[in-house]
Design brief:
By secondary structure, the protein is an alpha/beta fold. It has 2 domains: about 5-120 and about 205-215, Rossmann fold (3-Layer(aba) Sandwich), CATH 3.40.50; about 135-200, ACT domain (Alpha-Beta Plaits, 2-Layer Sandwich). The protein is about 30% helix and about 25% strand. It has 7 helices and 15 strands. It has helices spanning about 10-15, 30-45, 55-65, 70-75, 100-110, 145-150, 185-195; strands at about 25, 50-55, 80-85, 85-90, 95, 115-120, 135-140, 155-160, 160, 165, 175-180, 200, 205, 210-215, 220-225.
């Protein structure tokens, strides 16, 4: 993954949250890459920690930077996960998954005592679903049923493709990008989608983020739940 200097301040700030001896979830996406690169520099400088990557792409990047990795099974509960997001609303609820790693990202975040999100200021929205579709990961066998049921919930589901071929997640599943007119109640919608047979998970991360680090220009501000 190429270096993105525009998010260097964000990456450096996030890497500062990691302390010696921590077990840390390593996110996926542009902002998470900035964090992992900054973390790699700290590891090179002597920081001792282990990471659990949320995608194969992050695994490759972390390995190239000399970050020691482990599995979630071996790590148990994580101290901290730092990951990006595609949209963040005022309650710090999120849409994630445009990079295709939503299921592993949610599992790793759920296994962590703290979940901190890193984004550029453009990712802040007044209401989820305003600018991006909601990714929903489904098993291939259930694709037709999932498309039909998601449509009945008011969305326009589109099977994700990459380079002309159907996109396949790291878990071997398909992703339906579902455009809703708006998402007024993320928790309720998440529950209804998860009830569809064949759905593995959604990109709605409701009530999970402890705080959000937002880069605006060269500065980083912190949004906290309930503030």
């Amino acid at each position: 993954m190429a270096q993105d200097d525009s998010l260097r301040a964000l990456g450096d700030t996030a890497a500062g949250y990691v302390e010696n001896g921590m077990k840390v979830g390593l996110g996926t996406g542009r902002a998470a890459v900035a964090f992992v690169r900054a973390l790699g520099a700290r590891v090179k400088g002597g920081l001792k920690m282990v990471g659990v990557p949320t995608s194969e792409a992050t695994r490759e990047l972390a390995t190239s930077l000399g970050i020691t990795l482990t599995t979630l099974a071996d790590a148990g509960e994580l101290d901290l996960t730092i990951d990006g997001a595609d949209e963040v609303d005022p309650r710090l609820d999120l849409i994630k998954g445009l990079g295709g790693a939503l299921i592993r990202e949610k599992i790793v975040a759920a296994a962590s005592r703290r979940f901190v999100v890193v984004v550029g200021g453009e990712k802040l929205v007044g209401e989820l679903g305003v600018r991006t579709p909601l990714p929903v990961e489904v098993v291939p066998f259930g694709l037709h049923l999932c498309e039909k049921r998601l449509g009945a919930l008011g969305s326009q589901p589109v099977l994700r493709r990459k380079g002309g071929d159907v996109f396949v997640s790291d878990n071997g599943n398909y992703i339906l990008d579902c455009l809703f007119p708006k998402i007024e109640d993320p928790a309720s919608l998440d529950t209804r989608i998860l009830a569809i047979p064949g759905v593995v998970g959604t990109g709605l991360f409701v009530g999970m983020a402890e705080s959000v680090l937002v880069q605006e220009g060269d500065s980083v501000r912190v949004l906290r739940k309930g503030a």
